């Protein structure tokens, strides 16, 4: 009799355990890829050494940055400053860096009105587009001087303007840069670094090797840091703030529909869905518009990039743990 009982236990049918739908959390990750923080390196005034020194160092590390140029200064050679050419700016744009608007002649927008202010902003837009083939969708205030009226004017047809930044130059050493990076991660912040001169010029580094070493350090932490252009982070954050999720749950499946009314010509960044509290060893499949979307692990769960302009995202999952039926 005992042998028969053992035989029956060995051949009991098994089935997968579907995850508890109510326990699985679905949200838009604060930063792309589910990273803890973001950094955008921005370089002002279109100085020549930003092309000759910074650009090669960024390319070595596959870091994309934002260069804010004054169209009226391009190619300028004077005792005060030497600026890059349009050909050099175009080469950086073709490599994936952002070339954006810092005013035509670096004029204080708070002191301009009417046509003069419109020209300072829009003429620079036009020339940047003519020279690089990419219309600038961000704006950096010359001298960081701004008021509500200036912000309103500069924000038209933009994904964002640079409101806050931290200077990275003559006052910074290796310890400070490491602490800054640590603070961004700990507090889940977007850091916007602002740099002008590298070896010469305004706020230049005593030793630029300190900055190159900092870039190496950041590069080693890209599992936690989203390092990209100002435009990409600004667009992502605006999309995330304005996207409304409609989540429907059935056994082992979640369907996420999006309500999104932003301008598709401006806001075209993929967003990241964050799936938390999935069971261990869970098999996850994600579809949008009939396509399988890659699913990756992050520190908080699983993440998948999707288009906010696409159809519903269908998430199917089941644990590989089994139970007796």
UniProtKB/TrEMBL annotation:
Keywords, sorted A to Z: Signal
One GO biological process term: carbohydrate metabolic process
PROSITE patterns associated with the record: NODB
Location(s) in or outside the cell: Secreted
Gene Ontology CC terms, in alphabetical order: extracellular region
Span of domain NodB homology: 37-325
Pfam families, A to Z: Polysacc_deac_1 (PF01522)
Molecular functions (GO terms): hydrolase activity, acting on carbon-nitrogen (but not peptide) bonds
InterPro entries attached to this UniProt entry: Glyco_hydro/deAcase_b/a-brl (IPR011330), NODB_dom (IPR002509), Polysacch_Deacetylase (IPR051398)
Signal sequence, renumbered to the chain: 1-18
CDD domains (UniProt xref): CE4_NodB_like_5s_6s
UniProt protein name: NodB homology domain-containing protein
Organism name: Phocaeicola dorei CL02T12C06
